[in-house]
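Researcher: Let's continue the batch. This sequence belongs to Aldose 1-epimerase, and it's 346 residues. Same format as the previous ones, please.
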Amino acid sequence: MELTKKVFGQFKNKDVYEYTLTNEAGIAISAIPFGATLTKLVTPDKKGKRENITLNVESLEDFVRHRPFYGATIGRVAGRITKGKFSIDGKEYQVDINEGDNMLHGGPKGLDTKLWTIEVDESAGQLVFTYESKAGENGFPGTMQIKVTYTLTEGNDWVIDYEATTDEATLFNPTNHVYFNLTGDIKQPILDHQLELASSQYIPLAEENLPSEEKASVEGTPFDFQTAKPLKEAVLSDHEQIKQLAGLDHPFVLDKAQDQKGVLYEPESGREVSVYTDRNSAVVFTHNGEVDDYLIEGEPAKQYAGITLETQTLPDAINKEGFGDIILRPGETFRSRTTYHFGTRD
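Model: Same format as before. Here are the C-alpha cells for Aldose 1-epimerase:
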C-alpha cells in the first residue's frame, strides 16, 4: 500500500490536502477532508489501462461554490425530508429546508460542506475522517460525534464504515454520493453500462421528487434490474416515472437474502463494480441533466455522465411507515458498512 498527499486547495485560509492510497493492483482512492469526499478513484481496465472511474473533484473552490455532492459524505440524513418536519417521541422538529419546501441531503450546511479532521493509517490502507456536528446544526437536535473510514484493501475493495453517537435523540442516515463512469472517460455517457440489482421493489416518486408511501414491484417495468441489462433500457424508456425526470433518481428496496446487492459493468473496458451493504436501499441516480456551472476536465458534466448507487436506509424513513428506523439515541452507536469491489471481465 502506498500513500501520497498533496495540497488540493484552501478553505478558510487553511490548506486542504488530498490523500491517495494505492494498492498493489494499481487501484487508487483519493480523498479530501472537506466533506470527507472521494475526489478520484483509479482502476485498471481489462487491458491494464488505469483511469479514473468517477465524476471527480478537480477544484476545491468550485466544489465549495457549486456543491455538486460528487463523492461526498452526505448527512446527517441523505435524501429528502418532507417539509423538513419530523417528530421523535412526540416532539416535533423543523429542520432547515434547502430544496423547495423540503430538506435535501442534510440541509443547506450538510456534512458535505464541513471540513472534517483526518487521520491516516497507511499500513491499514485507511483514511479516517471525524467531525463533531453540534446540536442545532441545520436544525437537528443532538450533538453528534461522527466517524467515516475509507479503507482500500489489497483485495480491491473500497470499504466505507460509518460510526456515530449522539447526546440527544436525533436522526442519522448517511450515504456517499460517488458517481461511477466505468468507461474511464466522463465524456462518454453511462447508457451502455449494465446494472444488476438484488431488488424486487422500488419506491415511485411523488411531487417534488419526494418518495411515495408505496413499495412497488419492479416486475414488468423498466425498474427491473434483477437480471443485468443496459441502463439505456430504463433511462430512455417512456415510463411516466422516468420521463418526468429524464432518467432514474429512485430508491430501490434491497433484498435481504442476497449478500451482493448490485453489480455495475461496462462491456468495452471490462470494468465492474460489485456493491455490498447492510442498508435496506440504494438510490440509483443517472445524472439526468447537464451541470453547466461545474466543470470536469474543462467541460460541463454532461447528462448521463455518471451513476450513483447511494446505499442508505430508505429516504424519508422518519415520515414513512415501514421504511426503516433512522432514530439514533444517547447510549447507542450507529454502525454501517458499504463495500465497493472492483474487478474486470475479459
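Researcher: Any comment?
Model: The chain has one domain: 2-344.
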